[in-house]
Design a protein that fits this description.
flat
Amino acid sequence: MKEYKAAIYLRLSKEDREMNNSIDIQREITTNYAKEHNYNIIEEYVDNGYSGILSSRPALNKLMIDIVRNKMCFFLIMM
């Protein structure tokens, strides 16, 4: 079976820290999904403490650049 290059994007705003949606939980969910679908996670992008309202976030900006450079075939985002 073919293995696909993938990346995961994880974000948690300061406001959401009280909720049960930590970066570690997001990582576990997206990693398990990737394994089930034969995706090889080659990069992890994390914006911890950044609001989703902001369109410019350090890890998101790097992800967008890497997508343009065809670094990966898929990316997984926890919503």
